[in-house]
Amino acid sequence: MPDSDAVSPLASERPSLEQLSLKRWSLDQWLQHLETLHPVGIDMGLKRVSQVANRMGLLSRPIASCVITVAGTNGKGSTLAMIDSVARAHGQRVGTYTSPHLLRYNERVKIAGQEADDQLLLEGFEHVERARLQEPEISLTYFEAGTLCGLWCLARAELDLAVLEVGLGGRLDAINIIDADVAVVTTIAQDHANFLGTDIAQIGREKAGIFRAGHPAVLGSLILPESVAEYAHTLGAPVFRLGQHFQHDAFSNGLKTWRWQGQQADETGIVLDRLPDPGLPIDNAATALQALALTGLTLEQGRVQKALSSVILAGRMQWVGQWCLDVGHNPHAAEYIANYLPLPPGNGRQWGLIGMLNDKDIDGVIQALSARITDWVCVTLTGERGCQAQALSQRIIAQGGRVHFCADTPQAGADWLAKVLTLNDRVLATGSFFTVAALLARPLPTGAVSLDGDENEIR
C-alpha cells in the first residue's frame, strides 16, 4: 500500500523537485507516474532520452568495463540469459537490462544474477525525474524512463560486463544511447510492423543500428538479410557470422551434447566439446559464446558446461507440470515452438491455450502452431491492443483447428482446462507475454479426468 503522505502519481500537477526530495513513492506509484509522462507509449528517437542521459551523467563514462548489446526479432532473451550465465560462471560481475517483464518490474534489472530491489529502482527513478524536470523539461515515454533508470542502476554497480536487450528495433531504441563493445543481432523477422514496417531489409538495417565502428558485430542466425552485414561493413565493424566464423554441431553424435567452434578477437580459433543442452535454441547458445569470446574472456569448458546446464529463462519453453509456457508471438517464434514441442505421452492430446494482441501476425502464428496443435482454448487479452477470444477462435477454425472453449481471461481458460485434462495431456500456453504472465501468477491445473467426445467443440 502507498504511504499516506505520498504525493499521488496521478495528480494533475507535476511534482516539483522539492516534492520529489521530500516525498517517497512506492514502485507501483512510480510506474503509474511513468505512464503519464508522454502523450504516446512508443516514440522512436534518441534525442530526448540522450538529453536526459547527459544530465544524469550516464554518457560521460562507460556504464561497465564491457557492454554487449543484443537486438533481434526473436532470441534476444535467451541469448542474453546465456551470456549472463556463462560470464558469471567465469567469475565476472554481470548486470543485465531486459524488457518486458513477466511478473515483477524488478525482473528488468539484474545485478550478479539477482533482481534489483525496490529501493534501488526508486533511487534510479528519482534520478531520472530530477534530470528530466531540469529546464527545459523533457518528456519521456514509459520505456525511456525505465531504460534510463536501468542504466543508472547498472552504472553504479561496478560491473565487469553489462548486457543490454534492445526493446524495439535497434537504431532508435533507447538502449542505443550506449555504445556496445560487442553488438549481437539474433534473428530478423516481421514484428512490430506499425513501427518497423514490413521490408525485411529495412528491418535488418534498423536492428544493425546498434553496431559501432571498429567493434565486433555478431550475426546469430543462418538466415539474415544482407542489409545487416552490409551496414556493419560500412562502419568497419568486424563481422562474425554463424555458420561461417563460428558454428555448432548440435547433437550430431546422437547424445544430448554439442560442440562449438568459434573465434577470439585476435581470430584465434577456439573449440568447446561436450556442451549440455541448455533447453534453449543452440544457435543462440553458440552466439552467446561467440559474443563473450570477443570481449576477451577466456572460455573454459568446465565453466561453460556448468553455466549452460543451469541457465533458466522464464516464459521460454518453460515447463510447469503438464504446461509449456512460451511468450512467442510471431510466426518465427511459433515455428521454433512447433519444431521442438515434444509429443504427449501415450494417447494424450496436445492442447493450445492462446491469447494474442491484435497488432501481431495472428494468422501466421496459428498456421505455424497448427502443425502440432489441433485442440485449442482461446483467451481474451484486455486493453486496446488485446484480441478477443471469439476473434481468435474464428481464425483458428478457418485454418481447420478445433476450438473447445473461449475464455474472458487466461486464468479462466486454465480453469476450464482443469476440468478436462487427462494425465497424458499437455498444454502449450503462448501468444503473448501477457498470456504467460497471467498463468505464471497462479498454480496451473494437473490433468485427472478423461474428456469424452467433442460435444463442447466450437465449429
TrEMBL record:
<feature type="domain" description="Mur ligase C-terminal">
    <location>
        <begin position="315"/>
        <end position="433"/>
    </location>
</feature>
<comment type="function">
    <text>Functions in two distinct reactions of the de novo folate biosynthetic pathway. Catalyzes the addition of a glutamate residue to dihydropteroate (7,8-dihydropteroate or H2Pte) to form dihydrofolate (7,8-dihydrofolate monoglutamate or H2Pte-Glu). Also catalyzes successive additions of L-glutamate to tetrahydrofolate or 10-formyltetrahydrofolate or 5,10-methylenetetrahydrofolate, leading to folylpolyglutamate derivatives.</text>
</comment>
<dbReference type="InterPro" id="IPR013221">
    <property type="entry name" value="Mur_ligase_cen"/>
</dbReference>
<dbReference type="InterPro" id="IPR004101">
    <property type="entry name" value="Mur_ligase_C"/>
</dbReference>
<feature type="domain" description="Mur ligase central">
    <location>
        <begin position="70"/>
        <end position="213"/>
    </location>
</feature>
<protein>
    <recommendedName>
        <fullName>Dihydrofolate synthase/folylpolyglutamate synthase</fullName>
        <ecNumber>6.3.2.12</ecNumber>
        <ecNumber>6.3.2.17</ecNumber>
    </recommendedName>
</protein>
<keyword id="KW-0460">Magnesium</keyword>
<keyword id="KW-0479">Metal-binding</keyword>
<comment type="similarity">
    <text>Belongs to the folylpolyglutamate synthase family.</text>
</comment>
<comment type="pathway">
    <text>Cofactor biosynthesis; tetrahydrofolate biosynthesis; 7,8-dihydrofolate from 2-amino-4-hydroxy-6-hydroxymethyl-7,8-dihydropteridine diphosphate and 4-aminobenzoate: step 2/2.</text>
</comment>
<dbReference type="InterPro" id="IPR036565">
    <property type="entry name" value="Mur-like_cat_sf"/>
</dbReference>
<dbReference type="GO" id="GO:0008841">
    <property type="term" value="F:dihydrofolate synthase activity"/>
</dbReference>
<comment type="pathway">
    <text>Cofactor biosynthesis; tetrahydrofolylpolyglutamate biosynthesis.</text>
</comment>
<dbReference type="InterPro" id="IPR001645">
    <property type="entry name" value="Folylpolyglutamate_synth"/>
</dbReference>
<keyword id="KW-0436">Ligase</keyword>
<keyword id="KW-0289">Folate biosynthesis</keyword>
<dbReference type="Pfam" id="PF02875">
    <property type="entry name" value="Mur_ligase_C"/>
</dbReference>
<dbReference type="InterPro" id="IPR036615">
    <property type="entry name" value="Mur_ligase_C_dom_sf"/>
</dbReference>
<keyword id="KW-0067">ATP-binding</keyword>
<dbReference type="Pfam" id="PF08245">
    <property type="entry name" value="Mur_ligase_M"/>
</dbReference>
<dbReference type="GO" id="GO:0004326">
    <property type="term" value="F:tetrahydrofolylpolyglutamate synthase activity"/>
</dbReference>
<keyword id="KW-0547">Nucleotide-binding</keyword>
